[in-house]
User: Fold this.
Amino acid sequence: MKNRIYFFTGTGNSLKAAKEIAAELPDCELVAIHKGMKSAIPVGYDRIGFVFPVYYLGPPAMVVDFIRSADFGAQNDTYFFAVATYGGALGAALPYMRDILAERGVKLNYGAAVKMFANAVFKYNMSTKVEEKTRKSNERIAAIMPDIAAKKQNHTGSGIKLIRNTYMKEIAKVHYFDRKFNVSIDCVSCNICRDICPAKNINMANGRPVFQNRCECCLGCLHHCPKCAINTEKTQSRRRYTHPEIGSKEIMRYYGL
Assistant:
């Protein structure tokens, strides 16, 4: 039977996790969550998964919006799972996903978390230990793959009340995060920022990116810029990161660009 994994990614971390899991499942499709995608969840699939990063202790706004607007149809025996990738704190991303799926009449059978390279560069300068942290995250991904293949069930925990106020406050402002960006004269009009954006938040005007205030705070535009021309107030001298095995061209391919 077919399997499907929906993923949301900026730097490629969640796509890496989704690809590894998909490789262990028969006939598994990878579908990127992005603006303008089809919102019908197929019926009759053996497994359907969601792989996403943690933002502000919960799931990205676009992932939540997708699930709440999706047509799940009459799901019967499909096994649903979620994998949250995170760099700092996991928060209550998994129980939050469990609850919003429950709102749609869907049971989350299994949830797991994978600590990956932390890349919220607007908050801190990132570690230099990319190789070490990538190795550890790969080991963690490998550890959960047999659980999903075997359709293991688990309890995804609680803690939503503890993070709700912080999460709701920050996620409500996320679409305007792009107001913090500036574009330097180093911009070479390569269009990568436009094409890497899952929210289609960037237009090009006179060869320079113009943000449309529907940001998802994935930082894909900032990290993938080959000239480090996109910055917030604090990031100009800080390192950049994209998953060493996932490039911008691969992400764009899943976005249909």
Residues 217 and 224 are 14 Å apart (CA to CA). Residues 130-149 form the longest helix (20 residues).
